[in-house]
Amino acid sequence: MRRPTLRAALLQVPTFAIWLSACSTYPEGPIRMVRPDGVSVECNAPAQEIADAALPEIGAALSGLLETLQSQAPVEQKADEFRPLASTPAELDVLDYRICLEFGEGVLDAADFTQWREQIRPMLATGMRSVSELTARAPSA
Length: 141
Description:
The chain is mostly helical. The chain is built from six helices and two strands, in the order H-E-E-H-H-H-H-H.
């Protein structure tokens, strides 16, 4: 039986690296999906290194956050629930991506998702604590 040479083994390393990257479960670029109600949704995946750092913590808290988002609580209270997981722009991007995926899968309805995108997310991104602050800074038409 013939033993593989070092050269043959080294030639297989790039092949293994290509195979490994092809098997990665992390998406690249925007994810497009169609909701159960037929609405088309596009979610922007954050960079993999950002997601790797933030996803475990966000994933563990996601079901509670979705319940908060779907509740009748005031927007400010909802934003306060999200604040600990969105302390940096990168974490906010990962959170936005995960919430977008939940909307795309039909877990969130359009009203909850719109409230996230138009009120809660901007409050978290700017550090504002109330909807009135947000609307006061909105550009006038």
